[in-house]
Amino acid sequence: MGRMDVNLMRYLEGEHFRVLVSCEMGMKNHEVVPLALLSAIAKIHRGAVAKICGDLCKHSLIALERGIKCDGYRLTVRGYDFLALRALCARGVVGSVGNQIGVGKESDVYVGGDAEFNDLVLKFHRLGRTSFRKIKEKRDYHQKRKNASWLYLSRLAAQKEFAFLSALAAKNFPVPKAIDVCRHVVVMGLIDGITLCHVDQVDDIPGLYHRLMSLIVKFASHGLIHGDFNEFNLMLIKDDKIVVIDFPQMVSTEHENAEYYFNRDVECIRTFFRRKFGFDSDEFPRLCEVKRRHTMDIELAASGFTKDMQKDLNRAYDEGDFKAHESDDEDEDDEEEEGGDEDVEEEESDMETIKEEDEEHDEEEVNNEKKEGEKMKKGLLACSRFDAWLDEASKQLEQVVKIEGDEHVHIVKHPNQTVPSVEEREYESDNEDKVPQLVDGNEEEVNDEEEKKEKRIRNMKRSNQTVGTRSVMSVGSTIAPEEVKRRVTMELRQNKEKTKIRAKGKQSAVSRGRKSNRETIGEYAGWDF
Ligand SMILES: Nc1ncnc2c1ncn2[C@@H]1O[C@H](COP(=O)(O)OP(=O)(O)OP(=O)(O)O)[C@@H](O)[C@H]1O
């Protein structure tokens, strides 16, 4: 029994714990949590999560598991301990962790201290650890809660113990003081004594025997049967007083096997006294003789620790089976209806926020798609307008060719064109060469005479028509208008046929990652225990 090494906690940053919590959340529904899901839950970039996971793996807080269908991380026992301790530290309940003082079948018990260094006990429930490896063969995604997790069972055990400790202390039963519970850790008062199994000498053996039998009767009169009342779960303190430290299988006196459990408890004590102290007594209580005065069993049943939880836990204790709370369909329905504690609610709300954000993201995408669609529409519209314009232009071109005949010149009038001023006209005539012209490589072949003719006609037209400088088109080209039209339409068609450019490299990976995240999160049916 050594010391718990918690030094590492000092060096872990907020993001480390964020990823740890995400792993815990992911493990509610998954056997292993894929990196993509971790990143989605933690809302940290996948690259950063991968780095953090590397750190956490190095310190055995999580472990990378390679599955048949997918690789992913699982929270280790140490990681779960750290999560609970951190939360308890944050609450100001725990200030230090010391030596291990006890190790049971289903728990590790450490002595610790609060912020003022007052002694306390930290009991880490480890339910299912004995058969933990069994599940490895079937490691893969959970089917709802078909495969129980040790996280669930350990947490249940801790909740139950805390609920019972608090209730029993309130009725003046000799039990440790219940301080707090977080995940699988119960914080309770330290009992300064030794377990009965280690006691070799007692001053008043019959007195101790009677005190123990009275305690069994007191439990029964409150409607409870301990179920595991033996020398390992009893501690002897100053003045030979007894403290009960563990009650994993406490049942109601209304239980169908109540008598059997009651007699078993009585027999345990009788056998122990006979074996250890050679003390035998014919006086021992019987359940039928006990008068029931309180209904603690009913109160405890209503304390949030539901029947199904109890069933799960008892099966796990009885069978020592990791999959103990794997339930048949009927049970599962019940659990889904009844299950739910504060922690779960918190995590559900966490998940809801994640879902909401995802929905927002979806909406954004839909909006983006709409926008893109509109853009495309506009593009197409522009295209059809362009086609129309092209037809119009080519018609006009043909007309020009017809009208001008061998003059080769035409002036197009634009509806928005205004009549240029005299100065403009003079300037234009002076800078005729600078006017944008549609020309081709055969321009040199145009002889001076033709140029003069053009100028003459242009001046003539200007004097009669409303013409602007920018509307001037000089057709000195030898390319046939049909050919121009053909080339332009061909170019247009080619543009249309161009395949959509796909995002490649990093950008593509990011969008693929987001898509797969959404799909993975979509698999959740909410936290269901
Ligand atoms: N409040 C406490 N104060 C002092 N010691 C404690 C306290 N609780 C537990 N221990 C020590 O830890 C040991 C194990 O505790 P406990 O019996 O509760 O664990 P367990 O896992 O339920 O054990 P098992 O199921 O094997 O009986 C005890 O034998 C006792 O020595």
TrEMBL record:
Localization per record: Cytoplasm
Alphabetic keyword roster: ATP-binding, Cytoplasm, Kinase, Magnesium, Metal-binding, Nucleotide-binding, Phosphoprotein, Ribosome biogenesis, Serine/threonine-protein kinase, Transferase
Top-level class of the enzyme under EC nomenclature: transferase
Compositionally biased tracts (Acidic residues): 327-366, 441-451
Region (Disordered) location: 320-374, 413-481, 496-529
Limits of the RIO kinase domain: 66-289
PANTHER family: SER/THR-PROTEIN KINASE RIO2, SERINE_THREONINE-PROTEIN KINASE RIO2
Descriptive protein name: Serine/threonine-protein kinase RIO2
Organism, scientific name: Pristionchus pacificus
Name of the gene encoding the protein in the UniProt record: WBGene00305106
